[in-house]
Fold this sequence. Notes:
By secondary structure, this protein is mainly β.
Amino acid sequence: MKKMPIFAGLTCALALSGCSTLDNMMSDGFSQSELPAAIQVPAGNSVAMIGTVENGNVAWVCAQQDNGRYDWKFAGPSANLMDASGEQLGSYYGPPATWESVDGSKVTGKQLATAPAGEGNIPMQLVKANPAMGQGAMSGVTYIQRINLNGGKAPAGGCTAMAEGRRYISGYTADYVFWKAM
């Protein structure tokens, strides 16, 4: 099932201008106006690239929490980042959350904010990137946004003392927008 963009107005505006892919937004101007304020990238940054995840996975593990109850704990992502033509740009994995380009450069980062992305979906996210490791596409990345989500959530139940240590893999799709300082 193909995901629908959260910023539908932007997609319509792009379609009217002859631009139909996220990659083309870089040259036509990327507007964050329809994204929640909490995950908007500060002024002084511009879109460097956009990677789409079509068949990503989020791993969850059943574990006892500090309060003594059992619940699903985030164990890490695994996904390929693709461009609009279907070519692989890199991968996303963790922990720690790492975005790695096919050229070997990579970044990790610190989550600054999240915003709800709808029932059954992991949240939208804003990450402040750490300095890149290696030279290449990830060099100079300042922020990473996760938008246009579908799936990825932990199950609503099933995590008990009897299930402790059990892993659950949840499929998801998303777009990751990589920003660099202007």
